[in-house]
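[09:14] KT: can someone run the structure on this one? pasting the chain below
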Amino acid sequence: MRGPLSTPGRQAAAMAAGASVLAFVTVVAIPPFYDWFCKVTGYGGTTSVAAAAPGPVLDRVMTVRFDASRGEGMPWEFRPVVPEMEIRIGETGLAFFEAWNPTDKPVAGQATYNVAPDMVGGYFTKVACFCFELQVLQPGERVQMPVSFYIDPGLADDPDAQGVEAITLGYTFHLADLPAVQAATN
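[09:31] RB: done, structure tokens below
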């Protein structure tokens, strides 16, 4: 007769403990590492962040398209003010996205972003962006939110990017928890 500490029981307990550790690492440790990896390498179309454009502005012109979407449950209306613009590589661009809260309650949102094609994500650099901070819109509030960016001149030297003529900057707004101060008043 096998007791509670039998070999198969120990193996099952060890496997359960291992699965728990793996689940914890997958949920807690890997996403920040992946986010860091994407920001450093531009993998997955993740953009870079800088304080200002690098200096040289090239003659090569790129089309930058803007895309806006909403995550599940986000009640806002969200759109780019201008769907696309032409910009020279190295030149600082300024685009605006508009959000509107049609509800009768304050709603908080956080934007995630991506650049396509993926291979140019590391060359697309944001100087300032509404996506860096939580956004809270009051009932009926409509706002225009800026994003300042440039395309790094290093793109022109990348043989894999020679055929790229257009870049799409996409944002998805996700529903977020209201800050404690605003949640307490509602």
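[09:33] KT: thanks! The domain at 45-184 is CATH 2.60.370.10 (Ctag/Cox11 (Pfam 04442)).
[09:34] RB: yep, looked fine to me
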